[in-house]
Amino acid sequence: QVQLVESGGGLVQAGGSLRLSCAASGVIFSINTVGWYRQAPGKQRELVAIISRSGSTNYADSVKGRFTISRDNAKNTVYLQMNSLKPEDTAVYYCALGIATVYWGQGTQVTVSS
C-alpha cells in the first residue's frame, strides 16, 4: 500500500520561508517521478514543481526562482523549499507520486499572511 505523508506546512509572514517534506512508503521511490501540487480555496489544483527519477525538474512560472524541489532517494522523501513566500502562495499543498497511476498525500496547509 502506497502512503505519502506530508509535513512542514504552517503559517508564515510574507517574505518568509517554509520547507515541506513528503515521505513515501510502499513503493520503489527512486524510480518514480514525484511532485508538489497546491489547491487554493475556490481554485483548481495546480502543479507547483515536479522532479523526475533522474533529477530533472520543472516549475510553475509563478514559483520559479523562489521554490526548489529536491529528493532524497535514500530517505524516500521529496522536499519543497519555499522562499520569498507571498500571500498568493496560500493553499493546501499535496505531494504526488507516479505518472500513469498517481498517488496523493493528504495535504498540508500553507498560509502566508501579508
How would you characterize the overall build of this protein?
The chain is mainly β and 114 residues long. The protein has strands spanning 3-7, 10-13, 18-25, 34-39, 46-51, 57-59, 67-72, 77-82, 91-97, 103-104, 108-113. Strands 2, 4, 5, 6, 9, 10 and 11 form a seven-stranded mixed sheet that branches. The protein has a four-stranded antiparallel sheet with strand order 1-3-8-7, with no helix packed on it. Strand 5 and strand 6 (57-59) form a beta hairpin.
How does the overall form come out from the CA principal axes?
globular
**Percentage beta strand:** over 45%
User: Whole-Å distance between the termini?
Assistant: 40 Å
Radius of gyration: 13 Å
Helical stretch count?
0
| Mean of pLDDT | 96
* Main sheet overview: 7 strands, mixed
Protein structure class: mainly beta
Give the fraction of residues assigned to helices.
under 10%
How would you spell out the order of helices and strands?
Answer: EEEEEEEEEEE
* Total beta strand runs: 11
Low-confidence blocks of residues: none
